[in-house]
Amino acid sequence: MYLKRLEIQGFKSFADRTILEFQGGGITAVIGPNGSGKSNISDAIRWCLGEQSIKSLRGSKSEDIIFAGTQARKPLSFAEVEMTFDNSDNVLNIEFQEVTIKRKIYRTGESGYFINNVPCRLKDIIELFMDTGIGRDGYSIIGQGRIDEILSAKSEDRRHIFEEAAGIVKYRVRKEESEKKLEQTKLNLIRINDILTEIESTIEPLKEQSDKAKKYLDLRENLKNIEVGLILTKIDSTKQKLTEIQENKIIFEENDKNENNKLLKLQSEREELKLKYEQIIEEIERIQNISSESKTQLEKINSNINLSNERILNNNENISRLENTITEITNSISELTEEKENKNFKKENLAKNKELFDKELSEKQAELNKITQTLSEKAKEIEEKKKIIEENTELKYELQQKFNEQEIIIKNSNDRIKQLEKDLVSIISNLDKNRIIKNERLLQFKKIENNRNKSILELSKKQEQINQIELKIKSFDEKINSYQSEKRIKESKVKFLEELEREKEGYAKAVKSIITECEKNQVLNQGYKGVIANIIKVDNKYATAIEMLLGASIQNIVTKTEQDAKTMIEYLRNNNLGRASFLPMTTFKGNKLDRYKSVEGTIGIASDLISYEKEYDGIMQNLLGKSIIVDSMENAIKLAKENRYSFRIATLEGDIITPSGSMTGGSLAKKTSNILGRTEEIKTLKRELIKLEESIKQLENQKEEFSKSNAEQIDSIEKLKEEMQQNEIIFATEQEKMNSINKEVTALENEKNKKQQEISNHNENVEKSNNNKLMISKNISEIVEKCTKLNDEITEYAQKHQTDQENIDILNEDITNLKISVSSFEESNLSIDEIIERITSEIESKTINIENYKKEIIQLKEKNSELEQLIKELEQSILKIKTEVENSQERQNELKQQRIKENERISEIEKTIEKQFETIRDIKEQIVKIGMKETNINEAITTLINELWTEYEITPNNAKQFERPTNIKKVEEDVKKLREEIKQLGSINIDSIEEYKKTEERYTQMNEQRYDLETTIAKLHEVIAQMTETMKKRFKEKFEIINTNFNETFKELFGGGMAKISLEDEENILDCGIDIQVQPTGKKLQNMMLLSGGERALTAIALLFAILKINPSPFCILDEIEAALDDVNVYRYAEYLKKLNKLTQFLIITHRKGSMEAAGAVYGVTMEENGISKMLSISLKK
User: Fold this and answer.
1) pLDDT at position 7, please?
2) Residue 132 phi/psi, 5° resolution?
3) Residue 36's pLDDT is what?
4) Is beta strand 1145-1149 parallel, antiparallel or unpaired with respect to 1115-1119?
5) Taking the CA of residue 783 as centre, how many other CA atoms within 13 Å lie in the half-sphere pointing to its CB?
6) Do strands 528-531 and 557-559 pair parallel, antiparallel, or not at all (unpaired)?
7) Which pLDDT belongs to residue 547?
8) How many degrees, rounded to 5, is the angle at CA 1121 between CA 1116 and CA 1125?
9) At what angle do helices 169-373 and 968-984 cross, to 10 degrees?
10) Higher-confidence residue: 281 or 117?
11) What is the number of other CB atoms lying within 10 angstroms of the CB of residue 653?
């Protein structure tokens, strides 16, 4: 077996999943700088194998072994280590060729162990590796400091390494388990003996109780046979009476059904009339709503008419303004047209004059040409120069003309700019005025809008208040109806109860006769105090229990003295009125429970839970002083057992347990009213009726106040609606004005922008013309200079040919003047064309504006026509609505008359229904009386049946085998005798029969368990002794071999010397300490504490190697155990490792070169990222 693979994730510095692969056998070294996480690998292996001490893993708490995070990485939530072993040689006792051990822990504290991914216990892992040297306490993992610990620790603490090597750990574990089991078995035996002692003390008294209970059951069986027949006879006679009453009840119920049918028919007729009445009311309300809605519609229509008139006025103002604007623009166009005509006339005159000048210029030019032909070549040359001068002069004038044209353009542009700026000032002035008007109107509009919104909000709140008030009034009506309905029910019930009380319904015939006679006979009444049912007052929750406890005593008559009771008995006998029970106050002194054992659910003694006058104390204590009331049957049974059935017990549901042990219970027939507390109930109902009347009156007053408040609120909301309509008209008018001024402002802003753009364009033209002027001026200067030079030459020639030249000069001068004039004509003509073009453009623009304004006027007039048409339609609607209102008033009066008639019919049928109710009520009272009689008889039958079931758990149907007695008197005497016998037996514990049987069986069972435990103890002693002997034998054999191996290994590593191990107590070899004595070469035999650090480390390594020789561990991890050795000893240590690696796989964590050289494979650990360990990507193999 060898370690095949190690996987680590989240353990200490190994944040990422890290896998180390190992080959079978050989030495693998793990190297790396200090702090890189090398030792975390050995800690991970120890932890995976079950190490529980976090301190030994160099931590303080379990979370410390989970990766805690760095500045760049978050902490992980778990740590996991997985070790995979090759088990092909079946060293591990498990049916797998490859075994994977895994341990996982979460930061929440949850953890788990797994074998081949199957969850397991730590114990399973320990047992799997037991005696292999692998484990948390084995010698397969020797970490930093562990070498020194082997030598410096107490001699007793070294034993676990030797025991692991000797293979006795599993025996020690089993022995300790057996010793624990032995102690537990001894404790169980002590408990069994205590139980047996307790059973022996109770079994004899239980036997006596069991015999007594068996006798009681025999007597009770005899009593059952006699008493069941007696009860069955009584049931038969009572059932016969019940049949007669039920026949009478059927007749009355049939009558009730017929009368109810009549009532239903009347009610149906009433509902039809009511429906018709409601329809008339709805029609009246609808007509009234039409009137109200008509008023609202009229107000709305008038509002729309006013709004339309406002809009027409506003449109007329706009039309007037636009017509004035058109007049102004027309006048401006007329002026421009007149100016254009003047310019055209001037242009025609210029054209005529130009023709005359052109003709004269041609004549002069011809004459000049003639003279020049006669001149010499020099003269021709001079003439040529003069021509050049003329051409240049002509060019100069052309340039001058262009210069003048640019000046005209500049002048015209500047004039236009001035005109535009003037217009712009006017536009801006109008715009500012309109903006001021707009802002003023906006403020006014905002104020109007705020008032409108405020009115809407206030109207909404008022409407919500009205809704709340109407809901409140509706709730008042619902409460009043509810109280009135409750009042009617209670009045009916009071009347019914008073009738019962008057008729003394529910009382026995004799009791009823006594009460009636006492009311008439004052002499008899003097000794009469009342019936028990009327003397006591009982809380409703205890009523059922008290009634069941009293039973027939509830109708007992209380008298002052025995003589009064005697007088009343004689009255009953003389008048043959039946029998009654009397309770003279002078004979009862009271007999109340003084103490009893209470249990959970006990409420108290029955006499303490009722109210009565002090003078009746003796009677009440006698009737109820020895009766207890509890909350449930379960607690009643507990209380009865606890007090040995010494008094009566009743539950709140009316179930009874008697002192004899009998139990009475079950369902109770529903009663209309019982005699217990009937008088008190009448008083309570009357008090409640007074409260109801007060509540109804109070609610009606509150409703009236709310109604007044509602009327005031409706008036206020109507006023608010009127204000709201006025505000809406003002709001719409102002909104229209705002829209109009917004349009004007927008138009002026567009006009302003257009003018500004035109000014900008003219400014660009001026700048361009100025640049052209500069260029032309420069060209003119150049021409003047050239002409001056040529003139000088001509002057010189002229002085020689003055006469000819004078003629030529005169001609040239005339020609030049004529050319200038022609050029001037052309210049003026050009200027006039530009002015005409500008005027034409302006006229066209203004004409377009006039057309737009005319279109706008047409649109406004069309809107006015539409509004006038709308006003006419609205006025027609007003007339139509007024006509509808007048017609609806007549219909409303007709419906009101019809409503009065229908209301009278409803009143008549209501009276008929009330009479029918009286008839049905009388029938129902008779049915109730019969029902009460039926109930009393049913209760009597139920009581008998319950008694039969309570006492003997028999029903009449399965009691056919019991004989009905003929001599009832004799049977009753027999019953009395049997009950006396049962009473003499005293307290009976029926459960003691079964209890004795179970106790006897338990006693036998406990004796058998005691025998089993004693046998187990003997066997455990034998097993412990055998394991102790085996452990001694194996340990002694292995210890001697380890001693021999230690001496040999020591000599080989130290190059001589001597070493031995010895037991401190030869007689106690399993528990005594182990001493180590060594003698390095050339030194005396001495204690290890006197050795140097290197010698101590090498001694410990020698001992470890000696153990590995006797019991090689499949793999061994050595974490820097050679750190204290010098280089020579490191090489010796490494050489010895090579000898041992045939049987043991070594994983060494080291810094030493000698150790690295011995390794067959090398892994490097580094921290490329702070706080995170990583294995080098390539394994280096030697």
Assistant:
1) 93
2) -100, -5
3) 86
4) parallel
5) 19
6) antiparallel
7) 85
8) 140
9) 100
10) 117
11) 15
pLDDT for the residue numbered 1024: 85
Of 22, 39, 148, nearest in space to 1120 by CA: 39
State the pLDDT at residue 104: 93
From the number of C-beta atoms within 10 Å of its C-beta (0-12, 13-18, 19+), residue 93 rates as: exposed
Residue at 990: amino acid letter: I
Cβ count near 449 (within 10 Å): 16
pLDDT of residue 178: 85
- Asked if 733 contacts 313 with a C-beta cutoff of 8 angstroms, the reply is no
Higher pLDDT among residues 719 and 847, named by residue: 847
d(CA 981, CA 498): 49
Q: Is 1163 exposed, middle or buried (0-12, 13-18, 19+ CB in 10 A)?
A: buried
Contact in structure between 245 and 933 (CB atoms under 8 Å): yes
Q: How many CB atoms lie within 10 A of CB 615?
A: 12
Task: Please state the rounded mean pLDDT for residues 113-125.
Answer: 90
What's the alpha-carbon Rg for the chain, to the nearest Å? 67
Q: Rounded distance, CA 114 to CA 104, Å?
A: 9
Bridge partner residues of 79 (DSSP): 105
Q: What is the pLDDT of residues 334-343, one digit of tens each?
A: 877 877 777 6
Tens digits of residue pLDDT in 583-634? 998 888 777 887 888 888 899 998 888 988 888 888 888 888 889 999 999 9
Q: Which tens digits make up the pLDDT trace of 872-922?
A: 887 787 777 777 666 766 766 777 677 777 777 877 887 787 777 778 777
Place of tokens 């009663």: 671
Return the H-helix or E-strand segment holding 335.
helix 169-373
Contacts of 1037 (CB under 8 A, 6+ apart): 166
Report the alpha-carbon distance of residue 779 to residue 792 in Å, rounded. 20
pLDDT in tens, 1116-1130: 888 888 888 888 888
| Residue with tokens 């542009």, as numbered in its chain | 413
- Spatial separation of the C-alpha atoms in residues 745 and 753, rounded to whole Å: 12
Amino acid at 301: I
**How far apart, in Å, are the Cα atoms of 133 and each of 57, 160, 1045, 1138, 1144?**
19, 11, 17, 19, 11
Tokens (6 digits) for 516: 């009636």
Q: Classify residue 797 as left (phi > 0), alpha (psi -120 to 50) or beta.
A: alpha
Q: Region of 1007 please: left (phi>0), alpha (psi -120 to 50) or beta.
A: alpha
HEC secondary structure over 992-1022: HHHHHHHHHHHHHHHHHHHHHHHHHHHHHHH
Distance CA 793, CA 773 (A): 31
Q: Quick check: 234 pLDDT over 80?
A: no
Q: Which two tokens stand for residue 745?
A: 């402002």
| Distance (Å, whole) CA 107 – CA 62 | 8
Residue 1182 clears pLDDT 50, i.e. is over it: no
Of 94-108, 484-498, 1130-1144, the poorest mean pLDDT is in 484-498
CA atoms of 919 and 565, how far apart (whole Å): 42
Which pLDDT score, from 0 to 100, does residue 80 have? 94
Q: What percent of the chain has pLDDT over 90?
A: 4
What is the C-alpha to C-alpha distance for residues 888 and 900, in angstroms, rounded to an integer? 19
Tokens representing 796 are 């010189």
* Rounded Cα–Cα distance for residues 1152 and 1157 (Å): 9
590, 625 contact by CB (below 8 A): yes
Q: How far apart are CA 209 and CA 639, in angstroms?
A: 20
SS3 876: helix
What is the C-alpha to C-alpha distance for residues 871 and 864, in angstroms, rounded to an integer?
A: 10
d(CA 29, CA 906): 114
Residue whose C-alpha is closest to residue 42's, from 93, 83, 90: 83
Of 844, 971, 982, 787, nearest in space to 395 by CA: 787
Other residues' Cβ atoms within 10 Å of the Cβ of residue 244: 11
Separation of alpha carbons 771 and 883, rounded Å: 85
Contact 1136, 1168 (CB under 8 A): no
